[in-house]
Amino acid sequence: MSNRALLEVIALDVEDAVAAQAGGADRLELVTDMAADGLTPPRETFAAIRAAVDIPLRVMLRKADGFAAGDAGQLAVLLAEARALRAEGADEFVLGFLNPDGSPDLEAVEAVVAELDGCRWTFHRAIDRAADRDGLRKALADLPGLDTFLTAGSAAGVDEGLPVLLAEAARRGEPGYGARMLVGGGLTLGHLAVLRGAGIDAFHIGGAARPAGWGRPVSAGAVADWRAALA
């Protein structure tokens, strides 16, 4: 079995996607509007990126900044977009919703997951805003398709969340801890040694793939540096 770590890169468009693949990314997270921390991209953007690269794509399902699913009308729009993306060929997704008290919004999550019809998906960094991380993991554990939690261990990022990440990695295989941990959110190359030492094998970068800033495209060279560091 290969011990190659997974490297996921945020892509906003075809240029990003092509550069990320050229640099050695294993998978892309497709989003739009990073000012709102990443929302659902247009179906046409997904189609163009799918035609341009041949690595797996995980598509964000999120309509507004924050981690609330919104009212029934907003959720209905999101479900329609999920159906449209599925019809376009999307088969991996990213989602996650919280109630105002920080508990998982199971009604919304289950509604979206039902539209995905068994597709694999990531519960994103909403976990870092949850009132009870352990409880959230256990509440979601049996949902079909869930195979990954994207987390920094803290809403403030990996620097602050590192102890949580290490503690959760040590619980691998316990109820609620079967899904893969994908670390992202303020992640730097300097974090990799301790994370890899704890057995964590999946990493997610956005700004780190864009040395010139979020307004600039992904740099294949920057992604290659990460790929090399994970070798």
- Estimate the helix proportion, in percent: 25-40%
The main β sheet shows up as: 8 strands, parallel
Question: Average pLDDT value?
Answer: 96
Decide which structural class fits the backbone. Answer: alpha/beta
Instruction: Tell me the number of strands.
Output: 8
Q: Could you give the distance between the termini?
A: 15 Å
Strand content: 15-25%
Physical arrangement of strands within the biggest beta sheet: 7-6-5-4-3-2-1-8
Tell me the overall shape: globular
> What is the ordering of alpha helices and beta strands?
EHEHEHEHEHEHEHEH
Stretches where pLDDT is under 50 for at least 5 consecutive residues are none
Instruction: Note the total helix count.
Output: 8
C-alpha-based Rg, rounded: 17 Å
